[in-house]
Amino acid sequence: MPEEPEPSSSSRSEIAAQDPQEEPEQPDSIYDIAVTISDPAWEVALPDAERLCVESAIAVLGSVTKPTELSIVLSSDAEVRVLNRDYRGKDKATNVLSFPSGLSSDLSGTDMLGDVILAFETVSMEADRDGKTLASHLRHLVVHGILHLLGYDHETEEEASEMELREVEILDGFGISDPYNPVLEPVQ
Asked: How far apart are CA 16 and CA 10, in angstroms?
């Protein structure tokens, strides 16, 4: 029985491309950004919310030198209100909460930053009120929340100026104008 000729290298790659199990394994990303959507309203209003969160997180983190982990939860006003009440003593919803892990790294050397939780109804209402797209406002609040995880704050004017400047720089990379100095259209 005649042997079948071996496929050429180009047809081997075509075969591998057709069979995803044959593709080479890719190294894991240095970022471990878990996005959980606990309120389906996020997916309805913004189908690419998860991608926007991950891109925004990577823009904040920049070039990290070791594995970095954080969690972003797209939640509801009701859930955020409970967290805000239980952890901050404020019995009301807010747009974003940040919970730093308090750990610089775990035993594997991974920086475990913490959690950022966003409330759909508040974020959506603020975007509408301020004439922003939901996507732009989400990006801004993810950036803001992650900066809190990295130690930025806005308790003093100096801290606020430093944090806002960093937010504006990051958002500019996405073509989003300064959220603290909105350009108002003239009333006609």
From this structure: 10
As a dihedral over the C-alpha atoms of residue 64, residue 72, residue 147, residue 28, rounded to 10 degrees, the angle is 0
pLDDT tens digit sequence for 52-66: 999 999 999 998 888
> Contact at 8 Å (CB) between 100 and 113?
yes
pTM greater than 0.90 (yes/no): no
Cβ-contact 173, 184 below 8 angstroms: no
Q: Where in 1-101 does DSSP place strands (E)?
A: 31-37, 68-75, 96-100
Measure CA of the first residue to CA of the last residue in the chain; give whole Å.
Answer: 86
- The secondary structure of residue 37, as a DSSP letter, is E
Query: What does the pLDDT read at residue 109?
Result: 72
Q: Which residues of 2-24 are buried (b: 16+ CB within 10 A; e: fewer)?
A: eeeeeeeeeeeeeeeeeeeeeee
Biggest alpha carbon–alpha carbon distance for the chain: 86
CB 53 within 8 A of CB 72: yes
What letter does residue 20 receive in the DSSP assignment?
A: G
